[in-house]
Amino acid sequence: MPKHGKKYKEIIQKIDRQKRYSFTEALEISLSSSYAKFDETVDIAVKLGVDPRHADQMVRGTVVLPNGLGKDVKVLVFAKGEKEKEALEAGADFIADEETVEKIKNGWFGFDKAVATPDMMGTVGKLGRILGPRGLMPNAKTGTVTFELDKAVKELKAGKIDFRVEKAGIVHAPLGKASFGVEKLEVNANAFIARILALKPSTSKGTYVKSISVSTTMGPGIKVDPSILK
């Protein structure tokens, strides 16, 4: 078990651990309890009533958060010819040439997201063992393997996130920065939850959303009442 500091323990004592709050209340508590000297990220965790071991119960998708993530997302694009120009005009930070590929092989990761055109996947595939474990591998299911680079790059820069249910049935995602304030974070949270609900597998029986919690980088999880989704 991780050891928590004095401030964290003081915050825990002020929270009713048995209560389930509305999104507004949970975010207010989370933000008012923030004590870090940096602009913390606010995260959401949703426990789903699915068994990810079964392919037909895998919950995976993407969503563009209306208020973004509060960070400058660095996008690397694997493309050639006219598609290079399209990517740069859309706001891409890097175009992966041979030198860039070698830099990645040597440990360079100065980007947050990677996009590739289908005809470049032969090159990208050689980096699979490096990009895959870091969640940077372009994937058609998340819209990052596409010829529509203008759309893909702009969505990523605007705050598009991809998510996938973990083995324990939990989906984690960032909602933005603490400096956003409650209103903007709640809008992002509602967009994320709406997407989760839309992806409910037909084979999922019983309660789909079992629990929800929000937290800042350094703070405790504040439980949200899942019944508000009904």
TrEMBL record:
The coiled-coil regions, if any, are: none
Superkingdom to which the source organism belongs:
Bacteria
User: A Gene Ontology biological process annotation?
Assistant: regulation of translation
Statement: the UniProt record of this protein carries the keyword Ribosomal protein: yes
Q: Which GO terms describe its molecular function?
A: rRNA binding; structural constituent of ribosome; tRNA binding
Tell me which Gene3D superfamilies the record gives.
3.30.190.20, 3.40.50.790
Question: Matching InterPro entries, A to Z?
Answer: Ribosom_uL1_bac-type (IPR005878), Ribosomal_uL1 (IPR002143), Ribosomal_uL1-like (IPR023674), Ribosomal_uL1/biogenesis (IPR028364), Ribosomal_uL1_3-a/b-sand (IPR016095), Ribosomal_uL1_CS (IPR023673)
User: Which residues span the membrane?
Assistant: none
Q: Which Pfam families match?
A: Ribosomal_L1 (PF00687)
User: Keyword annotations for this protein?
Assistant: Repressor, Ribonucleoprotein, Ribosomal protein, RNA-binding, rRNA-binding, Translation regulation, tRNA-binding
> What is one GO cellular-component annotation here?
cytosolic large ribosomal subunit
- Please verify whether the record's keywords include RNA-binding: yes
Per its UniProt record, what PANTHER family does this chain match? 54S RIBOSOMAL PROTEIN L1, MITOCHONDRIAL (PTHR36427), LARGE RIBOSOMAL SUBUNIT PROTEIN UL1M (PTHR36427:SF3)
Q: Which family does it belong to?
A: Belongs to the universal ribosomal protein uL1 family.
Q: What does this protein do?
A: Protein L1 is also a translational repressor protein, it controls the translation of the L11 operon by binding to its mRNA. Binds directly to 23S rRNA. The L1 stalk is quite mobile in the ribosome, and is involved in E site tRNA release.
Subunit-level organization: Part of the 50S ribosomal subunit.
HAMAP family membership: Ribosomal_uL1_B (MF_01318_B)
Q: What is this protein called?
A: Large ribosomal subunit protein uL1
Q: Which organism is it from?
A: Desulfamplus magnetovallimortis
| The organism's taxonomic lineage, starting at the top | Bacteria, Pseudomonadati, Thermodesulfobacteriota, Desulfobacteria, Desulfobacterales
| Gene name per UniProt | rplA
